[in-house]
Amino acid sequence: MTSTMQAIIATQAGGPDVLIQVARPVPVPAAGEILIEVAAAGVNRPDLMQRSGAVPLPAGVTDVLGLEVAGRVVDGDAGLRGQAVMALVKGGGYARYCLAKASHCLAVPEGLTMEEAAALPEALFTVWHNLFERGRLTKGEALLVHGGASGVGTIAIRMAIARGATAIATVGSDAKKKAVEALGATAINYRTDDFVSAARGVTGERGVDVVLDIVGGSYVARNLDVLAPGGRHVSLSFMQGGVVPIDLGLVMRKGLYLTSSTLRPKSDEEKTAIAAVLRAEVLPLVASGVVRPLIWRQLPLSGAAQAHRILEANENIGKVLLLPTGDAHE
Known about the structure:
alpha/beta, six-stranded parallel β-sheet
């Protein structure tokens, strides 16, 4: 193994063009950590927010971008060396080698490619914690997920359906509508249809039990309108703005719950607990093929700026990946 590696950093806050490829020392695992030779790394919207300066880099975290990877363990825990793992990481994924907490890793099930594995950790951790732990979605209930064609959105749809819920999703094009419907969801093109009335129609005017929201802003009032009595509103991000007026009278009359969470600031112990539940509840669904990611593009590490542009333009249906050690595919 070499002592240096290629990695992607942002030279300053700004657009995709601030991303550059640099040589960095291969990191050395501390106690409880492993070193992964990265076969593929997922590209996520929090990466874009970090690059733009919208979200500051947490103290003590590498400036190398990337929050999820898959690859083989090459150093650290002797019992894991040589094993194929997928991992949620605090940073460092856009590189040839990446550190991860051993307790935040999931074994790659047989039959899953490294590329598919790299597309899963951020979505699995996010969806399980927010949709099933905080949102308490259960069998027989109805989910409305915004951004249904995104990496998180497609996994939320598949996990909801796998656990016996009805999935409804908003999308921004007919191509995305077709792809989401192929997953088993009812898709609503928000550019041509009102998602409140459409979702009410799907549920016999009852409304949905959980809204998984990435938009914020003007969507919040409409989300609360479409929620059924006792419904739960779960915010993952707020692309239209995070400070919004709330009709507390409506919240009280319906008995609604508003909650939110983000992964990166969570403690190592919290992430370890989520990983343990994923091993028991979700990995069997992945192994059986019931829950699999959609992959939109695979790019070389040098294509990080292009990957960010794809996400910013909302072109993708599913996941965009970087391949530090492999070949890229259109």
